[in-house]
Amino acid sequence: MSLRILRPPSGEPPATPSGPGVRVAQRLAVTQRVAVVAALAAVLSFYTWTAFTTDRNFPTQMDVEGRDYFNLLADSFRQGQASLLVKPKPELLALEDPYDSTKNYLAYRVHDLSLYQGRYYLYWGPTPVLTLFLPARLLLPGDLPERAAIVVYAFGGLVFSLLLLRWLVRRYLDGSPSWMLWFGGMALATGNVMPFILRRPTVYEVAITAGFCFSMASIYLLLRGALADEPNFWRLAGGSGCLGLAIGARLSTGVLGLLCVAVLVHLVRPRWSGRRLDAVRLTAAVMGPVGVCGVLLLAYNQVRFGSFTEFGLRYQLNDLQLDPDGLGHLSRSPYYYLFAAPRLDLAFPFVHLPPPPFPQPELPGYLLEPTGGLLTASPIALLALACPVVLRRSPRRAFELGLVLFGLAALGGLTLVTLVVLVNGVAMRYSADFTTLFLVAGVMTWIWLTCTMARVVTRRAMAGAGALLILSGAVVGLATSFTGNTDGLREGDPERYESFVGATEALPTAVTMVLGRPAIAEVWSPGTDSEGEAYRGVTRSKRSFSLGPTPVIIRVVSPNDRSAMLRAVVPPGSPSAAGDVLLATRWQSISRPLPVPPEGGVVDLPIRLTRGSNRLELYVQSRDATDGAPRVRITDLRVASPAPG
User: Fold this and answer.
1) b or e along 331-346 (b: 16 or more beta carbons within 10 Å of the residue's beta carbon)?
2) 609 CB contacts (<8 Å, ≥6 apart)?
3) pLDDT tens digits for 262-291?
4) φ, ψ for residue 143 (rounded to 5)?
5) What is the pTM for the complete model shown?
6) Nearest Cα to 383, choosing from 180, 175, 160?
7) In angstroms, how far is CA 382 from the centroid of its own chain?
8) How far apart are CA 616 and CA 520, in angstroms?
């Protein structure tokens, strides 16, 4: 395997080669370009499909009378004001404390807007409106859907990350196998958290994807401008401007920008230390656009909230307590962001994100959403930890590559630390701020280690190991794109979801054939989360949940046709209604109710299973219709064999 790290010395341009071999190479190059375009088109189609097959109800869709938040802000900008044209309800303004979440939800608040001096504001930055929503008004007859904007930003960020990877490979590892670059592209397209984010395309994701898009554009342009044989001032200025736009979309990218500028200055300064005019031009190119964006953002804050440093977070109308109270989150959040492993189960799509139980007491106000750890959900990022190995190598280009990779990993680490310290909680969508930085560093380190190993055996082993890590990350990324944060495909397009379940039921059926017994694949409560204990689509050995008249869906996978028992354990004193309470199952329109013992105990409900996936409904009835809606606590649910005889 040939690898060229150092470029050949410059000189007279070589004569243009010709011959049959050149024509073959040219045809191959055309074929590769077509393949790249086809692959990008496939990714864009997948991103679009994911965003537009998602549930359109709260919290997946947040709007005011059908209008997305950023479209409302675009209306305001066209009217020359920073506050929304939507007026708060008089009942909200009449409250003694309109920020009291126990009362303001009854006073017709608009969720997660900022209320200040009787007006509504968006606490998110203005970049999405300035770069997409307002320009779209000039081209479209109506509003630009937020989910369309998220697709544009997510795909744009992916393109710039792919350009960054391609440029790094061509500059430092020219001659490395093209298949490794394709695998690297797969890692960036599926492991960058965008498939997960697109499954819940609402206002939060607009800001996050816009920050992702412009931060990746900034890094790409700044590095290309700084590391060229002659600094490119236009690329530097463009990268600086994109950094300013990224900060205007998502404030956490400001940390990334500061370190990126520091790396830039470190690389460029030695060449221009003795030329004052060029140093001034470089300073203007690197600091000017981002400085202008920063000043405008501070002025925007002053107009909105009467303070240059107030972004509106303290005036939010929601139920969350995101300001850390104590330091308990400092030990918990890193676990979820780095190590929380996705879980394998029998429920489509067979890979689901945590949260699993954490071995510490619950934290007040701690935001805990489904979040997979970077090192387990995208394991190729592990190799980013090996970038100091590249840094120690002696050739100049190799040292420069190591410095770039170390800088990318440091950017990701610093952004992660900022999120952990400032936010009392974890959310998978926040991982988009740092994941791609680790992915680029990890993929480049993998290619470098593979191409520089002397022995063929170790080189092949490294290549295979990296490919397996990328494939496992792609499986997790694609699987979580079906569920997202709120099981968006099942809620938004249940028929399509069930078609996927039917098309893939051979896999869980094969598992139960190996086990030799039926297994519960999932316990799912449509429209609720069963008090947070029965996670959607996640198999648990102990299923504890609250059951009422609304059916809970039980999906049981069986290796063959058989009779069985659905065994539910009810704790003492569980029925909350007077009179006799019945626990019932329904399958194929057949209902089988049985009484719940007042003292609690085991209720065995007979069921008839067919080979494959069986969808049952479990609910509570009352013999006395005047008793109201009874509820029963289920502390365990299993499939058992029927009693002999």
Assistant:
1) ebbbbbbbebebbebb
2) 518, 556, 558, 561, 562, 563, 564
3) 656 655 566 555 555 667 788 788 889 999
4) -75, 150
5) 0.90
6) 180
7) 18
8) 10
